[in-house]
Amino acid sequence: MPDAISAAMTTPQVVTSDTPTLDPSLLENPDSFDQEMFLQLLVAQLKYQNPLDPMDSSEFMAQSAQFTTVEKLEQLTTKIGESIANDRLGTATGLIGREVSFTRADGSTAAGDVTSVRFEPFGPVLVLSDRTEIGMADISSVSARTA
């Protein structure tokens, strides 16, 4: 039995107020699928299945397992992102009291002592003794503070 999604994409259908619609931009960018979209597609497939030829229970179980996998992958992605952010914060605070060399926006290089770290949504910002603020990506070298 062809599934409801592939049938809906190949067979012209009359759209009524109770017919679920699919945002065409989602079909153009399959990476934008998330668990909400997966659940909507599964419900639509169940709702519009042929009652004389219902979905095979093993197929339903496979789709349920896929849904669980998508959900767990999203949770894992969130946890990895949090871990990376924590690592960046730890690295930034470890630079307090160190001298860093960095590249300015104009391409010139400079150096300064890190006196503090400010935490921004896009990542940590190092504040140098002369009040210069630089991002972690601008650092070219790190050394012990010179006396």
TrEMBL record:
Top-level division of the source organism's lineage: Bacteria
A GO BP annotation: bacterial-type flagellum organization
Which terms are listed as keywords in the entry? Bacterial flagellum biogenesis, Cell projection, Cilium, Flagellum
Q: Which Pfam families match?
A: FlgD
Where is the stretch described as Disordered?
1-23
Which source organism does the UniProt entry give?
Answer: Euzebya pacifica
Q: Where is the composition biased (Polar residues)?
A: 8-22
Q: What protein name applies here?
A: Flagellar basal-body rod modification protein FlgD
Provide the family line: Belongs to the FlgD family.
